[in-house]
Amino acid sequence: IVIHCSYTGISIHAPPRTEKMAVDQDWSSVYPTAAAFKPASVPLPIRMGYPVKRGVPPPKEGNLELIKIPNFLHLTPPAIKKHCAALKDFCTEWPSALDSDEKCEQHFPIEIETVDYVSAGTSIRNPKARVVTLRVKLSNLNLDDHAKKKLIKLVGDRYCKDTDMLTITTDRCPLRRQNYDYSIHLLTVLYHESWKTEMWESEKTEEDMEEYIWENSCSQKNALDTLLRIKASENVSNVTEEELLASEVVKNYRNSVIALKNEGETENNVSQYKESVKKLLNIQALP
Amino acid sequence: MKWEVHEGEHGVVTLVLSLKMQVSISDEPETLYKRLSLLVKGHDKAVLDSYEYFAVLAAKELGISVEKVHKPPKKIERLTLLKSVHIYKKHRVQYEMRTHYMCLELKYLTSSTAAVYLEYVQRNLPEGVAMEVKKTKIEKIPEHIQEPVWDTLPQVEETEVKS
C-alpha cells in the first residue's frame, strides 16, 4: 500500500507483509496455487542473479530472475501432504494377490504399452501418441508344436527367441483405440492362421526346418551304413537296422550330433561327440 | 458446495465457498497398469530436481511404490549462425539448447490411482517442462484366442481353385 501526495511528490510505502508473518503460519494459505514470486510475500532473504563487481548477487526486491524462474512455493511438503490426503479417497488398492511380476504374467499375459505426451505449445495433440505396442509370451498362448513354428515364421523379426516374446507395434490407424483393436485383430489372425495346415506345407524341405532332426537325415544314413559294413566284414549274423538304432552307442551318437547342430560348438558338445564316435567305431586306443 | 465461515490471520473473517469432492464408485473392472514410466524434460536442472522431490513425495503419500528414479544424461543441441545480417562469414555466433531428463518409474497402479496421480502431477507441471508418460497395461488373453476356431466351425467342402 503506497500513500502518494501528488503535490509534494512524497510517497510513503507501507511495510511489506513479511514483517507481520508469524513463524508458524499456514504457508499453504499464502501460496495456495502456482503464482509468481512476490518479494513482499516471501519472508526469505534470497539473492539471485549475476553478482556486481566485488559484490553480491542482487536482492529479491524487483529481481526479474526470481520472477522468471518457476517456483515451487505452492508445493511445500505440508501442502503436498494435504493435497494427497484429500485425493486419497479417489485411489483404489492394487490387488494384493499380484505382488510379483511372475504372478502378473501368469494371470495377465498380454502387455499393452501406450505413451502420452504433455507439453506446452499451441496444440495439445502429439502424433506419436497413437502408437500401441502389444507384447505377449508365446508360452502363454494355446499353441501346439506346428502352430508355434508357423507363427514364428509368419511373424519374422517381431519374435525374440531369448525372451520368448512376441512384440506387435501398430501405428497405421489415426486413433489409439483403433490401433489397439488392430493389434488384437493381428494377434487373433496370427493365432488362427498358425493352427491351419495348408497343402503346400507338406513340401517343407530340410533347409526350412528350424531345428535339426536326426531321424531320416544323412548323418543317420551314414552311421547305419558304416555299422552295417563293419558287421558284414566281421561276418556277424545279419543285424537289423532297428536293433542298431536301439543300441546305446547309436543313441549316444545321435544325441551328440543333435546337440552340436542345435546348440552350436561348445567344449562340452565337441568332447561329447568325440566320445560317442570313439564308442561307435570302437577305437578306444587313440588319445 | 456450501458457504463456510473461515477465520484468517489478524481476526479477518471471510465467507468461503467450499467444494467437497464427491467420490463415485462404478462397477466396471479396473484396468491394471504394471508399470508407469514418467520421463520429464526441461531446460533447468534445479527445476527438475524440485519436481522430482514433489513427484516422489506425492507417490509415497498416495501409496504408490516407486521402482526407481534415474536421470538420463543431458542432451545438448548446438547450432552455429552468422553473427552479422549481411557478410562477415568468419564471424559466427553459437547457441546451444540443453535438455535435462528425469525418469520416474512407478509400479503396480490401478487405473483410478493412475488417473488421480497423473492428473495431480501434470496439473503441477512447471512452465517450460514437458512430460512423456509410458503406460504398460496388463490384460488377460481375449476369449477368441483361447481355442482355435477351426475346431468349432462346420466342415466346408473344399472348392476347386480354377487357375
Summarize this structure as a short list of keywords or feature phrases.
heterodimer, A: 287 residues, alpha+beta, four-stranded antiparallel sheet, two-stranded antiparallel ribbon, 10 helices, 39% helix, B: Alpha-Beta Plaits, 7 strands, flat, disordered C terminus
Please tell me about this protein's structure.
- The complex is a heterodimer of chains A (287) and B (163).
- Chain A is built from ten helices and six strands, in the order ββααααββαββααααα.
- With 287 residues, chain A is α+β, with helices and mostly antiparallel strands.
- Chain A has a four-stranded antiparallel β-sheet with strand order 3-4-6-5.
- Chain A is elongated.
- Chain B has a domain at 30-139: Ribosomal protein S10 (Alpha-Beta Plaits, 2-Layer Sandwich).
- In chain B, strand 1 (2-7) and strand 2 (13-18) form a beta hairpin.
- The radius of gyration of chain B is 28 Å and the shape is flat.
- Residues 157-163 of chain B have low confidence and may be disordered.
- At the A-B interface, helix 3, helix 4, strand 3 and helix 6 of A face helix 1, strand 6, helix 2 and strand 7 of B.
- Strand 3 of chain A pairs antiparallel with strand 7 of chain B.
The end-to-end distance of chain A, rounded to whole angstroms, is: 104 Å
Secondary-structure element pattern of chain A, one letter each: EEHHHHEEHEEHHHHH
Task: List the secondary-structure elements of chain B in sequence, H or E.
Answer: EEEHEEEHE
Distance between the termini of chain B: 76 Å
Over the alpha carbons, how many angstroms does the gyration radius of chain A reach?
39 Å
Percent of residues in helices of chain B: 10-25%
Strand order of the largest sheet of chain A: 3-4-6-5
Tell me about the largest β-sheet of chain A. Answer: 4 strands, antiparallel
Stretches of chain B where pLDDT falls below 50 for ≥5 residues? Answer: 157-163
Mean pLDDT of chain B: 82
What is the count of β-strands of chain A? 6
> Oligomeric form of this entry?
heterodimer
Organism (chain B): Buteo japonicus
GO molecular function, one term (chain B): structural constituent of ribosome
Subcellular location (chain B): Mitochondrion
Keywords (chain B): Mitochondrion, Ribonucleoprotein, Ribosomal protein
